Amino acid sequence: MSETLVYEAGGPLGISGEPGRRVYTAALPVRWSDQDLYHHVNHARMITLIEEARIPWLFEEGTPTATLAAGAVMTDLHVRYRGQVKYADGPIRVRMWC
């Protein structure tokens, strides 16, 4: 299973797409404490926001990830930033698919 997470400005929340190409979109608030001195979201904080986005997806009925709700180990994570994220950009939307 390949999981890709992308910051996106819009789109519906929850599950969308065809079977075999299921997309889950979660919206997460950006907390004031997620910012660094330069007023953009710190990399380590971005990872925790991504981790938070995965939780509702894991428990969503009918997703390929439903079996992972009992437990999963993250072995690899790659983040490709398309730009900086600031507090004012929140809530951010995270899209995941497999």
Task: Describe what you observe in this structure.
17% of the residues lie in helices and 20% in strands. It has one helix spanning 43-59, and strands spanning 4-8, 14-16, 23-28, 92-97. It has a four-stranded antiparallel β-sheet with strand order 1-4-3-2, with helices on one face. Strand 2 (14-16) and strand 3 form a beta hairpin. The protein contains one helix and four strands. The radius of gyration is 14 Å and the shape is globular. 14% of the residues are buried. It has 98 residues and is of the alpha+beta class. The longest helix has 17 residues, at 43-59.
Share of helical residues: 10-25%
**What coarse outline follows from CA principal-axis ratios?**
globular
Class computed from helices, strands and strand pairing = alpha+beta
Alpha plus pi helix count: 1
Contiguous low-pLDDT stretches (5 residues minimum) are 1-9
Total count of strands: 4
Distance between the termini: 6 Å
Largest sheet: 4 strands, antiparallel
Q: On the 0-100 scale, what is the average pLDDT?
A: 75
Strand content: 15-25%
As laid out across the biggest beta sheet, the strand order is: 1-4-3-2
CA radius of gyration is 14 Å
- Strand and helix order: EEEHE
